[in-house]
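Sequence, please.
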């Protein structure tokens, strides 16, 4: 994964918009937007969003459009991002 150009921005105002209200983080190709600063958002959220950046690097159209077909909860890309969090979590007994 190329992460040297990924930018992480804390933009709480973005998450006041109707589409973004339900999220704490949002990945858009080489950008990750967070509701809170990274130290407060936590490693799990960053891993989840970095997984989405990787997915978009490899499937730049298929990944975003998959939400139209599968929705959010059962989307294979969301399932993969959740699994990445589980695999990288230090204490796997803690759940999001």
């Amino acid at each position: 994964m190329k992460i040297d150009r990924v930018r992480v921005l804390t933009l709480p105002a973005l998450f006041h918009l109707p589409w973004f209200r339900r999220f704490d983080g949002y990945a858009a190709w080489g950008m990750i937007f967070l509701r809170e600063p990274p130290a407060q958002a936590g490693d799990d959220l960053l891993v989840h969003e970095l997984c989405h950046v990787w997915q978009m690097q490899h499937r730049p159209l298929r990944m975003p459009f998959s939400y139209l077909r599968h929705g959010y909860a059962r989307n294979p890309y969301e399932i993969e991002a959740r699994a990445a969090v589980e695999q990288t979590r230090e204490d796997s007994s803690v759940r999001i």
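The mean pLDDT is 92.
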